[in-house]
Amino acid sequence: METVLAINNLGKNFGRIQAVNNISLQVKAGQVFGMLGPNGSGKTTTLGMLMGVVNPTAGSFSWFGQPPTDHMRRRIGAVLEHPIFYPYLSGRKNLELNAMIKQCPVANIDNVLALVELTERQHDAYKTYSLGMKQRLAIASALLNDPDVLILDEPTNGLDPMGIAGIRELIIRIAAGGKTIILASHLLDEVQRVCTHFAILKKGTLIHHGPVHDVGKGTETVEVKANAP
Ligand code: ATP
């Protein structure tokens, strides 16, 4: 399997706060890779570095065996926070605007709308969408340029059970379509349900990584360490 992402001794300090400390791991093509950790464990900072919006203070990483250039980043789609959508425009119009900004073929819009199951609601105003639908539209927008990798930061945060189920099914569908997915989550059951591989971050440090059938083992480690004096 091709190595999509290789992270080598990556670190980030914000002043005296060590947000990410000496992380090394690899993500291979086709994996759904979960970064599991509680709030403040360094997941968002790590994803920010991988997307080129946060500068590392130590270490390096490569995408597809190459240093992270803008060209490489075109192969990566991300939903790091809710993108700006216009409330009174339809879901489709919002995607058309994003497609224009990203210079993607408008033809992709039908495909991504179908994939995120918003074809029927595409002409309704964005403001009428449920939170789950808004998140699915955000994912659709990240997929407009047909990236090889999709990065999602806590994609089910704040959603009701139906919205959560919809996003998890969508992640599994996208992975089945051949994309590599990197997903930050603080929910163990989310990682167990959708991920093939995972890493556990605690206070910026990688304390376990491997295939998801190990997930229980890694979590015990978190519990034990969390309770340690
Ligand atoms: P959450 O789920 O709450 O987003 P997280 O696992 O994504 O948590 P980060 O957001 O990466 O964790 O934060 C890791 C640490 O770095 C925290 O202590 C946080 O307060 C700190 N931190 C993050 N960004 C900054 C910043 N811009 N300036 C100062 N400290 C920061």
Automatic annotation (TrEMBL):
- Protein family membership: Belongs to the ABC transporter superfamily.
> Which positions fall inside the ABC transporter domain?
5-228
Q: Which UniProt keywords apply?
A: ATP-binding, Nucleotide-binding, Transport
Q: What is this protein called?
A: ATP-binding cassette domain-containing protein
User: Looking at the keywords, is Transport present?
Assistant: yes
Q: Which one of the record's GO molecular function terms can you name? A: ATP hydrolysis activity
